[in-house]
Design goal:
7 helices, magnesium ion binding, 2 domains, 12 strands, Rossmann fold, about 35% helix, EC 3.1.3.-, three-stranded antiparallel β-sheet
Amino acid sequence: MGIEGPVINYGGAIIMDTRTDRPIYTTQIPGEMVQDILSLAANRKMHVHLYQGDAVVYEKPSQYSEAYVSRLGLPHWADPAIRDKQWQDVPKILIITEDEKAKELIPVLQKKYAGKLKISGSSAGYIEFNHVSAHKGSAAAILAEQLGISPAQTVAVGDNSLDMEMIQWAGLGCAVGNAQPDILAAADLVLPTCGDMAVAHLIDTVLLKG
């Protein structure tokens, strides 16, 4: 998009400055938790993707990994020894599985890792793990403070559970029309769907007229 400046990545785990390609803020999953998640995925025969910098590491290629990295255009590689290594500096882990299995597991894992990890699901079949303090709301708050902007001066737009804290934190929290039901319920304003130019609608009818 050619946008330069700070960007919140990995569900709020990292704030990157695209002008310098350097992180402004980072959180990492503790090493022992990384090993626990890798074992969990192996025991349940689920496909796990571990982030290192802006790259994705997985045990072996699969339809899930190929589709994921192809869609996002991420650097990636397979590491058959992924479960045998002591990983450091891991901002996010993604498990991809069948949608119904993910829906069943997310609340179970949220209870199991309460106070230890932030667990959410942004898309069908996704189970996403971050540091317990990492979410888009906390990242937005940190960035706003650095820029001298109050919450009342901010606007957030989202569509899935990764966006919940950000929508709740922002002065104006918006959901696109095709957002998940809980996001629609939490929003101050519901916009048209993504396909109907939701952000353009927000800018033209709310922000520029405000």
